[in-house]
Amino acid sequence: MLVSGYAGVGKSSLVNELHRPVIRERGIFVSGKFDQYKRNIPYSTIDQAFRQIVREILTESEERIGLWRERLREALGESGQVIIDLVPEVELIIGAQPTVCPSCRPARRRAASTGSSSSSSAPSPAPTTRSCSSSTTCSGPTPPASIC
Hints:
The protein has helices spanning 11-24, 44-58, 62-76, 80-86, 91-94, 108-114, and strands at residues 28-30, 129-131. It contains six helices and two strands; from the N terminus they run αβαααααβ. The protein has one domain.
């Protein structure tokens, strides 16, 4: 979901109201907010949201983290290190991954020099996953057994 509008019209309040029903249904709620001073950093809002997902996963039980680990490893296959290069915290869930050929890796140095970063996501083992942003993105319910 994209929530946009002029400053002060209640975009953040609207997104925050979505938090309660998502959590009540054992979903993971994350958000990213556009920062006018970071507009030169591509995907910074999406990056915020996916880092929040990883932090949320790491608060779960070891059993739930294990489910995430299995699903992510299966979904990522040999590309796990590419995702770790984009969202380093993912390594805390899936562990160290084999290196990927240089031509297959994201341009992390270039991204670091411009301050940019991008991310990828996976749904929660919980029944509902929503990713919301008061100025950028929100994805609806995701089947618990699927990985995007």
